[in-house]
Amino acid sequence: MQWIDLRSDTVTQPTPAMRQAMFDAPVGDDVYGDDPTVQKLEALAADTLGKEAALFVPCGTFGNQLALYTHCRRGDEVIAEDNSHLVWHEAGAAAVIAGAHMRTIEGEGGVMAVEAIERRIRVGDDIHEPRTGLICLENAHSNGRVLPLSAMADTAALARAYDVPVHLDGARLFNAAAHLGCEASEIARHADSVMFCLSKGLAAPVGSILAGRADFIAQARRKRKLLGGGMRQAGVIAAPGIVALTEMAARLDEDHQNARYLAEGLAKLPCIDLDPADVHINLVWFRFNAEIDASELMSALKQAGFLANPPHQGAMRLVTHWQVSRADIDRLLEVMQRVLSD
Ligand SMILES: *Cc1c(COP(=O)(O)O)cnc(C)c1O
Question: Which one of 83, 91, 93, 332 is most buried, by most CB atoms within 10 A?
Answer without folding.
Answer: 332
